[in-house]
Design goal:
Layout: E1 17-19, E2 25-28, E3 34-36, H1 49-52, H2 74-85, E4 93-96, H3 106-121, E5 125-130, H4 140-152, E6 161-163, H5 168-180, E7 184-187, H6 191-197, H7 215-226, E8 236-239, E9 254-258, E10 272-274, H8 276-286, E11 291-295, H9 302-314, E12 324-328, E13 332-333, H10 340-348, H11 363-369, H12 373-383, E14 391-392, H13 394-408, E15 410-412, E16 414-415, E17 418-423, E18 431-437, E19 447-453, E20 455-459, E21 479-482, E22 487-495, E23 501-509, E24 527-528, E25 531-532, E26 537-544, H14 573-577, E27 600-607, H15 609-612, E28 619-622, E29 626-630, E30 641-647
Parallel strand pairs: 4-5, 5-6, 11-12, 13-14, 15-28, 17-23, 21-24, 26-30
Antiparallel strand pairs: 1-2, 2-3, 7-8, 8-9, 9-10, 16-27, 17-20, 18-19, 20-25, 21-22, 22-23, 26-27, 28-29, 29-30
Helix pairs in contact: 3-12, 8-9, 12-13
């Protein structure tokens, strides 16, 4: 065996081993970029002082926080280059390959928008392929949920819906071919023995005592494995590559395991199942994918990807040109956890109301909350696509939702904390019709009629008997405009036994009606909204906010560290980013201690009559309050239920605390 401690080139990956801090091996890649040679890439996870104060880190993504332009996308440039060179004959074929073992989250939305979006831009196609290689965890329920999420985001795979299990026969035939070529062998070590012999990031692996089996012995054992002769764990099929490779993924990776479990599509036909790296590469090649786009944790898997399909192509079993794998930085978002293990804990522990809880970072939860497909696409475009990990502040996602909803959501009035207002000089029993625009920037959407009467509801905080400085709403003796109606002057207030206001009395000026010449005769600074008592409809309103109260739940420094120290992110950052292979104990504190107790408040509010007949998933701006959606599950005629998607302004960026 060659000396491992000496730095040497890796012919398959183009990397050279170097010592990093604390003995961590690094690969020196093209352009001098230095990144750990690890299954999980941690490059770029440094805390910026701005995160600690509630603002996003200083990255390229935040340069477009104002929403005026898109961030760079190296994949778009790569595809354009391939189109110019004719590498794939003008074809662009991407794929989105989820495992059907859970619900998609915000990070998947970025990947969906990227893969489908790039295909659409280039007149190509994007395949939806379910990586169904683990029968113990997969279910058709998850497949349906994933397909619904992709459709909801506005994408269509057409006839290109596939499963890895579609290729089980060919995958197995290729496995036999590798055995016959002497490129694969059946290993009979236990899982612990294989783990110990695999080596470390600084030490080479040891060859299995079964590596020298002949092709005929291996083929016989493989066929007996398929026939169900052996129990789970008795053998695995491994590729014969290089146990001394500095890339641990090339140290004779396993490609088949025994698993006596029925598959939700193939039933009991198989008792051996292919592993992901092997299946993923071959499936891409069989579907003639051109650009196989993965997240950064697969960067060190790329040499294996190329080795597998390259060998098969050399043997005449796959058609060239072969797919090319590219890696981009996954979505690392503050104020959430994306790890499947931790999301399961939140659901099973009763911290949320299920996978579609609007506070959950799942796409089913986002849909129920009122987030929009357009908002996710805008967010993905703004943060761009890069090759190095960075943290994206939650405020960027929320702002993208505001911007999209501002364009699409019609305006309505809701009074969340009602206080009665009586206009003493307005005739009892009389009403006047006021007109309000459905969307102030879209006159083509028309206007709606609102009835104005003697008794109205206003927001409780729109009246103050002893107002603070700069308060321009209703106070004794002061004037305000009732939005879309008249100017009123406060003349008095009735209180209950505890001294709390229960009725505010005013007089109105009939010559100041909005939309008439008299409206300009009286200049007032305050403008408040209202509902007529006789028209107001009671509704349940759920005020949702961020599920966690700190940017990095579970971290020893939950608000991050000062960028001046150049210290790396908390160890738990990988788990927050959603890697279920990360150490379960990586978090420095229990992330559940950072749950926001104010992430959900349910109130009884009053809304205008038009909202009582809204359809499920209709979205509105409740003027002065935020954007709301008619709940997908609970909203019904006679029982209106609205969820707050996002507030009108970012209150988290200005103060460390939830919105109100």
């Amino acid at each position: 065996m060659r000396a491992f401690a000496r730095a040497r080139p890796n012919a398959l990956s183009g990397a050279r081993f170097r010592g990093g801090p604390s003995g961590t091996p690094y690969a020196r890649r093209a352009g001098g970029v230095r990144a750990p040679v690890r299954m999980i890439v941690e490059a770029g996870l440094f805390m910026d002082k701005s995160i600690r104060t509630g603002h996003p880190p200083a990255t390229a993504a935040t340069a477009v926080r104002d929403g005026t332009s898109a961030a760079p996308n190296f994949l778009r440039a790569q595809i354009a280059q391939d189109q110019r060179s004719g590498k794939y004959g003008g074809r662009v074929v991407t794929r989105f390959p989820p495992e059907p073992n859970g619900y998609l989250h915000y990070g998947h939305a970025k990947s969906i928008a990227l893969n489908f979006g790039l295909a659409v831009e280039n007149g190509g196609t994007c395949h939806l392929r379910f990586d169904d290689t683990n029968p113990l965890k997969e279910d058709v329920e998850y497949e349906d949920s994933i397909a619904d999420a992709v459709r909801w985001l506005g994408y269509d795979w057409g006839s290109h819906r596939y499963h890895a299990s579609d290729y089980y026969d060919r995958l197995y035939a290729f496995a036999e071919w590798f055995v016959e070529q002497g490129e694969a062998y059946v290993d009979s070590q236990s899982a612990d023995e294989m783990r110990r012999s695999r080596g470390t990031l600084t030490e080479p692996g040891r060859e299995s005592p079964y590596r020298s089996r002949t092709p005929s012995e291996n083929l016989d054992l493989l066929r007996r494995m398929r026939a169900g002769e052996f129990p789970d764990g008795a053998h695995v099929l491994r590729l014969k590559i290089d146990m001394a490779s500095p890339n641990v993924n090339l140290r004779d990776p396993a490609i088949y395991r025994i698993r006596h479990a029925p598959h939700h599509r193939t039933g009991d036909r198989w008792c051996i199942y292919p592993l992901y790296d092997y299946t993923h590469a071959i499936s891409d090649a069989l579907e003639r994918i051109t650009h196989s786009i993965c997240t950064l944790e697969f960067q060190d898997h790329r040499p294996l990807y190329d080795w597998v399909i390259g060998k098969l192509a050399d043997g005449g079993l796959l058609e060239r040109p072969l797919p090319q794998q590219y890696e981009f930085a996954r979505l690392n978002l503050t104020y959430v956890v994306l790890s499947k293990r931790r999301l399961i804990q939140l659901v099973d522990g009763g911290h949320v109301d299920g996978w579609d809880d609007p506070r959950m970072p799942t796409l089913v939860g986002a849909r129920r909350r009122g987030f929009t497909p357009g908002g996710f696409k805008l967010f993905a475009e703004r943060i761009g696509v890069s090759k190095s990990d960075s943290w994206i502040d939650m405020s960027l996602l929320e702002q993208a939702m505001r911007d999209d909803l501002n364009e699409s959501a019609e305006r309505r009035i809701a009074v969340l904390d009602p206080l009665k207002l009586v206009i003493d000089n307005f005739p009892d029993g009389a009403f006047e019709t006021c007109l309000a625009p459905n969307h102030p920037q879209k006159p083509e959407l028309g206007q709606r009629e609102r009835r104005f009467g003697r008794e109205l509801w206003i927001e409780r905080d729109d009246f103050a008997e002893s107002p603070p400085k700069g308060y321009f709403r209703l106070t004794p003796g002061a004037e305000v405009r009732l939005r879309y109606a008249f100017v009123v002057r406060c003349t008095g207030v009735e209180k209950d036994a505890s001294g709390n206001p229960v009725v505010v009395h005013c007089t109105y000026d009939p010559d100041t009606r909005s939309g008439t010449p008299g409206a300009e005769s009286r200049k007032v600074k305050g403008n408040i909204h209202w509902l007529a008592v006789d028209d107001a409809v009671e509704a349940e309103v759920r005020l949702y906010d961020r599920l966690f109260k700190v940017p990095f739940p579970g971290a020893r420094h939950p608000f991050g560290r000062s960028g001046a120290t150049d210290e790396p992110a908390p160890v738990h950052a990988i788990a927050v980013a959603g890697d279920d292979d990360a150490d379960a104990e990586a978090a420095e504190r229990d992330y559940r201690d950072d749950l926001n107790p104010d992430s959900k408040r349910v109130i009884r509010a009053l809304v205008e009559p038009a909202l009582a007949t809204a359809g499920r998933e209709e979205r509105f701006q409740f003027e002065r309050h935020g954007y709301f959606v008619a709940d997908l599950a609970d909203h019904a005629p006679g029982r209106p239920v609205f969820n707050r998607a996002v507030t009108l302004r970012d209150s988290w960026g200005k103060a460390s605390g939830p919105a109100r």
